[in-house]
Amino acid sequence: MTDNKPPTAEALTNGAESHGVPTTIAQQYDLLPKLIPNLDRHLTFPLLEFLSGLEGDESAEVTKAKFELLKQTNMTDYVASLWQEINDSDEVPEEFVKKREEVLQRLSLFTEETSQIDELLNDESVVSNLRSDKVANLKFLEQQHGVTIQMVDMLYDYGRFQYSCGSYANAAHLLDQFRILSTDNDKASSASWGKLAADILTTNWEVVMEEVNKVKESIDTKLFNNPLAQLDHRTWLIHWTLFPFFNYEPARDTITEMLFSPSFINTIQTNCPWILRYLAAAVITNRNRTRNTGAYQKQLKDLVRVVRQEGYEYNDPVTEFVKALHVDFDFEAAQKKLEEAEEVLKGDFFLAASADAFVEAARHLISESYCKIHQRIDIRDLSARLGLNQDEGEKWIVNLIRDTRMDGKLDYQQGTVLMNHPANSVYQQVIERTKGSFFRTSVLSAAVAK
Questions:
Q1: How far apart are CA 353 and CA 18, in angstroms?
Q2: I need a labelling partner for 261 at 20 to 30 A (CA). Which of 68, 89, 218, 351 fits?
Q3: DSSP states of 309-353
Q4: Smallest Cα–Cα separation from 4: which of 221, 166, 124, 224?
């Protein structure tokens, strides 16, 4: 118990490894100082682990940061080992030995005091009699099995204790049991956050997404009359969902949709505009995943709008790439920002595993935009804009035309691609622009008639 250690960065990033020493660009746009205040100390540890991997041999500063981060927890053996590393000593200070004994004593006491209620909640005959009414459940357990409010609260205290010890699976189990019975809304809310953190740290992503929905619903309903608390809680939830966002494929669309909802996009713009980096990376990499072109184009349009609005507040190479390509239509700037964005992504804990997919999808976006506004395209010029040599660029363009079904013809002798952009007739343009006018007129007439 006392020798537990938080999960490594590799365990929480689908095995993605750090990409060597961080570059100046990656250091310049490091978001760690902005992320840490919105994360639990246990959730912060993997980010420090990733940072130590970026720097090769773990630096003394990172080791000290780990020690300061975890010294208040009950992982006494691991904290003691960090102290020994910092002070280059083989001796373990008496304070760690004493705290270890206290932790083991408290563990034994908690186990004894919660054994009865834990057995009851694992008994099918008892659980089958429980209903959605918590008050009725407590009355049933009190009358039939002698369960008290104090015993229920002990589950909460024991769950927090297990979490502090780094025993995240046990903590999630205990906090879930507490939520089933507790009528204390504040403690139940705290237990939900604790269970969400514990499930993230055990990489139980399916359950994590269930907990995200529960926490989101709680924020929307129970904090309805407290806008400031809603803002703070949504800010925390946004940061915590970054873990499943880029580590659990089925969560990508759900979380993207959530972040684009009015309440959450307002939270991002108000409290944490740096999240636009992750939203931009998700939308751009979604290009290779989604089959719903309409939904993707809407997300891209919304992203461009928010990036343009928040440019004065926050920017980095990822958001600047979006602006250069879709606002300024500056292909040279887009290529330059793409190179910088690749470095930034490789130095970001959450995005390191998505760096290659981002570059691939970004090149497609550059190619598509370039082909839409040019009729004759020089392969060498486009290859340079994509950061490819001429042979690679030629293969890339051929694959692009095939995959996107663009109307283009490759001229190998001239080294060019001829794009066919048939112009819409005047009649077709009139039809497109007036297509919804009849419906709108009918709605207006009905409104006036009332």
A1: 9
A2: 351
A3: HTTTT---HHHHHHHHHHTS--HHHHHHHHHHHHHHHHT-TTTGG
A4: 166
pTM of the model: 0.83
> How far is CA 259 from its chain centroid?
10
Residue pair 148/138 in contact (Cβ under 8 Å)? The answer is no
Distance CA 124, CA 301 (A): 52
The per-residue pLDDT for range 42-88, each reduced to its tens digit, is: 999 999 888 877 655 457 888 888 899 998 899 988 999 989 888 88
**Structure tokens belonging to residue 153:** 């609260």
Could you tell me if 239 and 272 are in contact, meaning their C-beta atoms sit under 8 angstroms apart? yes
Tally of residues, the chain: 450
Give the amino acid at 286: N
Average of per-residue pLDDT across 365-373: 78
Helix residue ranges, H only, 130-241: 134-145, 149-164, 168-181, 185-201, 205-222, 227-240
DSSP 71-109: TTSS-HHHHHHHHHHHHT-SPPPHHHHHHHHHHHHHHHH
Q: What type of residue sits at position 50?
A: F
The token pair that represents 118 in the structure block: 């834990």
